[in-house]
Amino acid sequence: MAGHASILSEKEYQHFIMERLNKDNGYVIRKAVSYDRLFAVDREMLFKFLNATQPDEMAALRKIYKDDLEDTIVSLINTEETKARGSLLNVLKHGIEISNMKLELMYTKPATDFNKDLLAKYEQNIFSVMEEVWASDDERIDLVIFLNGLAIMSFELKCNAAGQAAEDAIFQYRTQRNPKTRLFLFKAGVLVNFAMDLNEVYMTTKLTGEDTFFLPFNMGNGEGVNAGKGNPVFEDRYSVSYMWEDILKKDTVLDLISKFIFIETKEETDELTGKTKRKESIIFPRYHQLDVIRKVLADVRENRTAQNYLIQHSAGSGKTNSIAWLAHRLSSLHDADNKIIFDNIVIVTDRVVVDRQLQAAVMGLEHKAGLIRVMDDKCNSADLATALKGNTKIIATTIQKFPYIVDSVANLKKKHFAVIIDEAHSSTAGKDMAAVTKSLGSDYSISEDIVEDVEDVITKEIGKNGKQPNVSMFAFTATPKPTTLQLFGRVNTKGQREAFHIYSMKQAIEEGFILDVLSNYTTYDTFYRINKEIEEDPRCKTVDAKRQIARFVELHDTNISQRIEVIVEHFRQSVMTELGGMAKAMVVTASRQGAVKYRQALESYITKKGYTDIHALVAFSGKVKLPDDEQEYSEPSMNGFPEDRLTKEFDKDEYNVLLVANKYQTGFDQPKLCAMYVLKKLKGVSAVQTLSRLNRICPPFEKHTFVLDFVNTYDDIKAAFAPYYTTTLLSNSVTPTAIYDLEAKLDAYAVLDPDDIDKANELLYKPKVTGKDKQKLTFYFNKTKNLIEKYELVKQAEIVAMMRHFVRFYEFLLQASCFEDVDLHKKYNFVLYVLAYINIKHPGGGYDLDGKIKATNFVQKKAEEHVKSDLVAQPVMKLPTAESFNLTEAKEERLSQIIAEINSRTGKSYDNDVAVKAMLQIRDIMLKSEKLKTSAKNNSEKDFEFSYFDNIDDALIEGLDQNQDFFSLLLGNDEIKREVLGIFAEEIYNSLRKA
């Protein structure tokens, strides 16, 4: 590269970092020759620290050990670090004992500044850095960081300018570093190993050769909606400068060691031997975890109990540890006047398992008797009251006791509480769910689908009581509902409510912590025909009828057997071999009866095919009976073991399919789940939570996910994910500004011609709309429709969604204020008709009652296959507002059936409610007709029908502005017109005769 100024080399980068550590952070730069590779220690620094901070102890020990003192201390430290239950972390936190004397190996910052001696010792911790350290004859490490002579961190640096990146450093750690080398020995060697280039940082706390798992340790790039993986780009400094400007600062390192890093122990049962083995890992916070704890603590220090905090952290963000760290830190937090801020920390969760994890995590941070108490199933409200009044600093309890906490806390005005709410959602599994279903009756009813989740319970409770001055709430959720944002969110500069801290789904996916479940998403359409099995046409309520038909179709044997064939064959061909043959699938059924019938169909299909590699379990609460079957079915009776063993059993290799009904759709963590087969309508938060069961990574495997959805459209599912993909904002106060913003977004698509809007409104407000007017209106709506259709499909959906949004917002604004804007109202009218005109709803076919209908011609046809997700964030949410129009009278139900028949005959899909409303309007127009009144009074019903049908066209033209498209169809098709409107002849005849 002669003639060019040399670009930064790896060596220069290394020196630059050392210089920064030395100049800005007071690190001592040491020569590599000072390193003792047998014990991973810099002896000179260790004894400099001990002699300076504990001179009396060292003098006493020198008398005992004389010249052997240094060797004795070094080997004792080594023994404590390398024994089975020992660790470097333990030695740093708790020191060592030698000849009845205690030697401290680091000093942490005191919680208050009362103790001047401790503060002075804290200042005497020695931080040093060494380059090119030979950890063994074959292993040379770029940088090693020492605390008081003990090696605590290793760095492999790469310089992008020299054509290498962090991935190369990771490769080096995996392939060229021996996990048995003393410097890298798990628990005894360094606490963390960093792979770092100029743009990104990755870390691991345990080297295991090729399988070593590195986590990103990046800040995230971009704000709010644009936040993703990586780090920000700066003009004047490196993207990773936060490492030496913040993370490697003395205070931060000591904070990390004393308050964050802990050893997690999990007990795992070996399936073959049945023996329990301990699996240990060193938990080092990821960047967003460290960031949220520090920011929350700083805010609480300033505001004490004045604020609530919403922490929107995606699945896969390590929430359990974040909560443990927060609880632990809040329990000892002092304000600027050295006063303790909270008397008690209450952790509210809906999962006892998480409580156990939390308890382990908190105890990992600090073994202090009575520090944390878990209120398990055996504890009642009285026990909780005692704990709240007592001295236990941290109390973990279940959601069921939450209303009681709210009451107790209100009575304990002198105490200050931090209430941490874990994942505002509920698993609705087990006893609670069974009790709900039981109390609402065992027949299929809406109770099976609509269960208040934890978030709703909490919202209600807090709503009743309001924010208490002595209580701060800290709510963790990946999917905040509008009500949660309203309660816990902070108002931003734009007046929207948002979370205090965000680690977005987008960032988690990009960083590889979770998988994008919208990739490999295939939808199936189910086609069938419903036939009436009885002569008369009963009158019945629409909602019931629709529900019964959907249910009838859903539980139809042909439908189930066809779907099971698709599911089993897809699982065997595409999924089963994933994760080295350990892949599992979940089948989400719409009801408990569905779960039973699908399981039966699956068993009979695999028996028929002779498959021996598929074994399924079911999960549903309570007991179920099927029509024409006397037997009672329950989860334990079908699985052959109690409910509480399900998660353990399903984890075993022998089971690979789980059929669920309202259970395990939330809060269920099974990394081996690779596929989901959806047989149930999923909406909003519930869709996100259910599909997110798949998103866990399963190292060391490269996991792929598959979704086969028989019920929902891909667009529906995308719409459910969009609000939670990045940041979720609540545009709560509906203002004219907001509606004008929406209008501007809509105008930007250039599909609405202002001239057309004016002309169309003139026609719509005419006293009498002629046939010619009708044609003109059709032309305007068609023109807009064509303009929309010029965009690609994704954009079309976006435009229609924006139009709907505009309509809903405007209607809400009209209801909520005395807002007036004639031009905007004209646009609203026009958009409303355009939406009706391009109607893209798909109502189901026909309806009737159980036992009186027959379903035939079932076909399961693959509809759409999405290999890569194209999700765009839609961060703005708002509180639910206007109620939807509802019709329940018997007369309207008969219509619904006819309308459904029209749908199937014409291939069009009209929205039932709109059409029914239109029909009723025509009826009212005709009931006011003087001409018909005269005819009814002077004719028989048969003769009256002649003048009745003559007058229909006038009524249709009059009602045209209600539903352009539907009325045009009636005007243009005599047979359908007679069938639809003939239904009113008798009623109108009788009514007008009496008038």
From TrEMBL:
Superkingdom in the source lineage: Bacteria
Swiss-Prot/TrEMBL GO biological process terms: DNA restriction-modification system
Keywords from the UniProt entry: Endonuclease, Hydrolase, Nuclease
PANTHER family registered for this protein in UniProt: HELICASE SUPERFAMILY 1 AND 2 DOMAIN-CONTAINING PROTEIN
Name the record gives this protein: Restriction endonuclease
Species in which this protein is naturally found: Hornefia porci
Helicase ATP-binding domain sequence ranges: 281-503
GO terms assigned for molecular function: ATP binding; DNA binding; type I site-specific deoxyribonuclease activity
